[in-house]
Amino acid sequence: MRVYSPPCGCGDALKRPSNSGYATARILNIRGVMVRRDQMVCLEDQYISHVNAKFPGSVHDAYILRNSSIPCVMGQLQRHCVWLLGDSGYPNLSWLLTPLRNPRTRAEERYNEAHGRTRRVIERTFGLLKARFRCRHMTGGSLFYSPKKVCQIIVTCCMLHNLALRRQVPFLQEDGPDGGVVAAVEPVDSEDEPVDSEDEEAEEEDMNNRDSVIQQYFQ
């Protein structure tokens, strides 16, 4: 069994577009902040294997996932017992395991505990990425560029992050502007409501797949 850390979404604050109206509304997240929505997948060593930063802040994480290359890739990898982990904002799929909302058995509790421990890898990755590149951290303010430019910056930061890991570049923590140290670990929770599948038969099959994982690995 091999598990990749979850497709996880976060946002990067950016400047207000020159044109108002529809375009501006699409960039606003549920908190009314203009952001660019990122979706990332990382491996156990915090290496970022996928990044999608082309969607505005109003878009649901599940929509970004559905319109990315991940479903096609994971559909092929699933035969090798490979899964992605996703938070409760994502639908549970045959290749995407989400936490149980109400675990009833000790096996289900162990599954949720293991899910949470593994998910911390993406949280640490986000924290390290934002600490290395202060423009992505709240202490660095907003990215005062066009949405297209912000997308390019996000992808470039991920590429440099992977290069730094590959070449074992040490991470040097620096004092923040308020005298504190920028944390390398930040909790990342989806702001989106859970998505239910429109195909009840497929949804039941996906739930059965998660149950079989729990029975096989967590009993």
Automatic annotation (TrEMBL):
Question: What is the scientific name of the source organism?
Answer: Pleurodeles waltl (Iberian ribbed newt)
Family membership noted in the UniProt record: Belongs to the HARBI1 family.
Source domain of life is: Eukaryota
Does the record bear Transit peptide in its keywords? no
Name recorded for this polypeptide: DDE Tnp4 domain-containing protein
Region (Disordered), start-end ranges: 178-219
Compartments in which it is found: Nucleus
Coiled-coil regions listed: none
**What sequence ranges are listed for the domain DDE Tnp4?**
39-162
What would be an example GO MF term here?
A: hydrolase activity
Ranges of Polar residues composition bias in the record: 210-219
Q: What is its main location?
A: nucleus
